[in-house]
Amino acid sequence: MRIYQAEDYKAMSRRAANIISAQVIYKPNCVLGLATGGTPVGLYQQLVDWYRKGDLSFAETRSVNLDEYLGLSPHHEQSYRYFMQVNLFDHIDIKPENTHVLDGLAKNPEAECAAYNQLIRDLGGIDLQLLGMGHNGHIAFNEPGDDFGLETHLVNLTESTINANQRFFESRDEVPRHALSMGIKNIMNARRILMVVSGEEKADIVCRAFAGPVTKEVPASVLQLHPDVTLVGDRAALHKLAEAGVPVCG
Hints:
With 250 residues, this protein is an alpha/beta fold. The protein has a single domain (2-243), classed as 3-Layer(aba) Sandwich (Rossmann fold). 33% of the residues lie in helices and 17% in strands. It contains eight helices and ten strands. It has helices at 9-26, 41-52, 80-87, 109-122, 159-165, 184-188, 203-211, 235-243; strands at 2-6, 31-34, 62-65, 67-69, 99-100, 128-131, 153-156, 178-181, 192-197, 229-234. A seven-stranded parallel beta sheet has the order 1-10-9-6-2-3-5. Helix 1 packs across helix 2 (41-52) and helix 7 packs across helix 8 (235-243). The longest helix has 18 residues, at 9-26. The chain is globular and about 50 Å long. It starts with a strand and ends in a 7-residue tail after the last helix.
C-alpha cells in the first residue's frame, strides 16, 4: 500500500486526479470504477479542467459506478447517476453508452445485481477503482459486518448511513432505506484501487482501517489484503496514521 499525504483538500484532489489521468493516458480504453460523495468532487473538477485544456481525453474510457439508491430515478437530484452527470460525465468526452450506473428503478433488484456482475466481467474487469470511505469504515454501501465475499447486492442501509445521508434530502423520511452496491469481492477484484479521504472527522476511522486488524467491523480494512492500493488524503485525515507509525509519504 502506498499512502500519500497532501497539505489540504485541493492538493489531495489534484494528486488523486493525477493517478486517474495517468491510468487513462496509459490505457485509453481502461475501465474506471467510480465513486460518489463529497470527497471525489474536487478530483472530478480537476479531471474536467485537464480535459478542457486538451490534456486528457475519455473518448475510449469505460466506467462503472459503485452503487445507487434503490427507488430513485436517474434524474433525481440525489441519485448517483445524476451526481456523475453533473460532476463529471456532462463535462468530458466520455461516450454515454460507456458509462454504467446501477438502475435504481430496477423492478427485479437481484437480477439487476447479477447483470451488473456480468457487465463488469464482460468489460474485462476494473482497471482502477476509486473509493471514498464512510465514517464507520464502509466502502460503497458495504456496511460493518457484511460478508467480504459478496458481489453486487441489495443493501439494507444502516441507521448511521441513513442519518449521514439525511442532509441531502428535505426530510429523513425521504432518505432511501435500500441501495444496490458492488460488493467487497467486486472491489477487491479491481487491478488497482485508489482511496481518497479528507478531513479530521475521518482520522480515527482511517487509522482503524489501515493501522488496525483486518475485520468485517471496518470494511475498508480489507484493502490491506489487496496488492495494489494507493491511499491519498489530506493532513487532517492522515495524521493519526503517521502517529501510529504507518509510513506516509509527503
